[in-house]
Structures are given as structure tokens and as C-alpha cells.
Write a structure and sequence with these properties.
two-stranded antiparallel sheet, 10 helices, mainly alpha, 65% helix
Length: 273
């Protein structure tokens, strides 16, 4: 089989696989690719989360940990109740929720692994300031898991790696030759800037939107979200990279989008009682 025929047949196979593995993000209904079973990532997340708990310095601040668990529990309930009331499948039905507070004041971050494994760093509490702020951050991180962004990223990575191999075949192995000569993953670098980063920013914006909805459904004042990003912008002090080089939207763009969404979300997604 010559190179042209191989590329044609392989490309058709990937397209067919991709079309059969499409689904939609809850609420936004954005089409997404899922080539990897969600259960696989959930199982891996369980293992990684246990390792984090063993290696990280867990905070002894019971008051703030209890607050994180309280807010998380409200968001858990609101998400499940929202989808149940709308006769839609609960995207968190197979989640095994868990929360930890990691002692590190230099890290202003939080995350949620697939399956509802959540961590908040003590440094983030200096940015969130209050329950509304913490709910906004946790809602955003939980939104990544609800929208299955990790599954989507992993699936896209599979296609991207396949595409890299096809490009190398199409160029007669010249990409591999350049990589060996320069010691640089040329295609990987270009794809990160030109393909993967914009895709990740789309996920981040989607998580912002869904996170606002989940916080609002849980009874929190989502107007606090704008203040969080203003404080984050001040904390970064102009150190954030240009948006095209970043996996996240710039703080300024983020603030503008969130401001646009707030009134619509407050009216459309009132607290669940």
C-alpha cells in the first residue's frame, strides 16, 4: 500500500470513529468527542487522588475543610436535582465525591478530578474570601468533571497523536528527522499553540458558564465571581502569558464574559429549594 492510500484509509477510519463517539455537554449541548470510556479515567483518578492525599500536606484547618465539604454537598445536590427535575440523566450519578484541603499558601488553585475528586489549596482561600467566592471556584472546577472535559481532552489527544503520525508519513518522515536533529517535538509544539490551547480555552469558558449555573442553583451569589477574577488579576500583577499561549482565557476576557452571563443565569437558574 502506498503512502497516499494509507493516509486516505486511515483518515476515513478516524473520521468514522469520531462520528460514532460524539456526545453533547449537559446544558450547553456543545458536541464533544469521547473515544475513551469515562470509567477508565474515573478509576485512574481514584488512584491518583489517593497518591495526592498521601504525598501532599493536608491542612489541619477543620473549619475551612468543613466549609468546603458543605459547599460541595450543596452543589452536588443541586446538580442532581436540576437534571432529575428536567428529566435528564444525571452526569454525576457515578461520582464518588471527596474533598481535601491542601496546605500551600503559595498555590492559588483548586481542581476536580473525573468522578468528583476535589482539592482546594489554602492559597485559593485568600482569593475567594467568602462562601460565595469559594462556591464560584468549586462550581467551576466541578463543571469540568460534569462536562467530561478530561475524557474529551484524552480523546482529542488520541486523535492528535494519530494525526502527527499521518503528517510524518505524508512528509516522508521529515518531521521525525527535524525532531531528532533539534531535540524538539515540532508538531507537538505547534499543535499545542494552534490546536490544543484554543480547545482548552473553550473548555475553560464552558466551565466558567456551567460553574456559575451550579453556584446559582445552589443558592450562592454569583456576582462574587467577578470580584474573584479581579483579585486574581491583581495577584498575577500582569504576569499572565498572552492568551494565545495560554490554556485559560485572559483574566480580562474572563471578567467580561462572566459579567455578560450573570443576569441571564440568575433569572434562568434560580436556587433549587
Amino acid at each position: 500500500m502506498n503512502r497516499r492510500n494509507f493516509i486516505y484509509l486511515f483518515g476515513c477510519g478516524c473520521m468514522s470513529l469520531g462520528l460514532n463517539a460524539c456526545s453533547s455537554v449537559p446544558i450547553t449541548e456543545r458536541k464533544q468527542l469521547k473515544l475513551i470510556p469515562e470509567s477508565n479515567l474515573n478509576n485512574r483518578a481514584e488512584i491518583l487522588y489517593e497518591k495526592v492525599k498521601q504525598k501532599a500536606k493536608l491542612s489541619e484547618d477543620k473549619k475551612n475543610l468543613d466549609k468546603i465539604i458543605e459547599i460541595g454537598s450543596k452543589i452536588e445536590y443541586s446538580i442532581s436535582e436540576f437534571f432529575d427535575r428536567n428529566n435528564q440523566p444525571d452526569p454525576t450519578a457515578n461520582f464518588n465525591w471527596e474533598y481535601i484541603l491542601i496546605e500551600n499558601k503559595k498555590v492559588r488553585n483548586a481542581w476536580c478530578m473525573p468522578g468528583g475528586k476535589i482539592a482546594v489549596y489554602t492559597g485559593m482561600l485568600e482569593i475567594t474570601k467568602n462562601d460565595n467566592g469559594l462556591a464560584a471556584v468549586m462550581g467551576h472546577e466541578i463543571a469540568h468533571a460534569v462536562a467530561k472535559h478530561s475524557v474529551e481532552r484524552a480523546s482529542r489527544s488520541v486523535l492528535l497523536n494519530t494525526g502527527t503520525q499521518i503528517i510524518d508519513i505524508a512528509t516522508g518522515g521529515k518531521i521525525s528527522q527535524v525532531n531528532r536533529t533539534t531535540g524538539m517535538n515540532t508538531v507537538g509544539l505547534l499543535s499545542q499553540i494552534g490546536i490544543m490551547n484554543p480547545f482548552n480555552r473553550k473548555q475553560e469558558s464552558e466551565a466558567d458558564y456551567l460553574g456559575l449555573i451550579f453556584a446559582s442553583l445552589s443558592g450562592y451569589d454569583i456576582r462574587e465571581t467577578v470580584k474573584i477574577w479581579e483579585r486574581m488579576k491583581e495577584a498575577n500583577k500582569g504576569k499572565e502569558p498572552p492568551e494565545f499561549m495560554s490554556t485559560h482565557p485572559s483574566n480580562t476576557n474572563r471578567i467580561n464574559k462572566i459579567t455578560e452571563w450573570i443576569n441571564e443565569i440568575v433569572l434562568k437558574y434560580p436556587p433549587i429549594t
